[in-house]
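Entry type: protein chain
Record version: 2
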Amino acid sequence: MLISGAFVWGNQLFCLFLQQILNNMERNLLIELLEDGEKVSLYSPHFEGEEYSEFEKFLLTYKDTYPEDVRQLVYRLDIIKRDGARDMHFRYEGTRRDRVMALPSHLETTSLRLYLLNIQAKILILGNGGLKKTATYEEDKNLHRQVRTLQKIDIEIKQREKEKVIIVKGTELLGELSFTIDD
């Protein structure tokens, strides 16, 4: 009896160990230019081994099931590209330490949230998002994961900005735009 109990306990430890390894996987990514603009340029994280960037995955996932919401978000991005990435266009998400924001703003409503990084109101790094079903993103596993991914990317970019490995020049993000984050 004691031997089988030790075996079960050992198995549980091994499963916890495997879970920890899977939770701490590193993923390589490139911050990819989607569209260069005079007032705002659009970028998106593109993970190694994946066919599409995060923003492209968002569009492909929701274009058929929520076409009006996707249309509204793309329309808002067009306005931002034309007028600039002023705060009024976004919802603040994440924490005070990061640059994570969401579309649509509080003035508009859609069933979807698109998460992004707003860098110096000249560069938007469009992430992924999802269907808004809860009061806060933290309550939804998918939305929380999307925000956390952008927070990790933001930490890397800020560190590289501090070290002058990445610089913002007008609406361009210049420097080493490929790196690894813990997923």
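Comment: Residues 167 and 174 are 5 Å apart (CA to CA).
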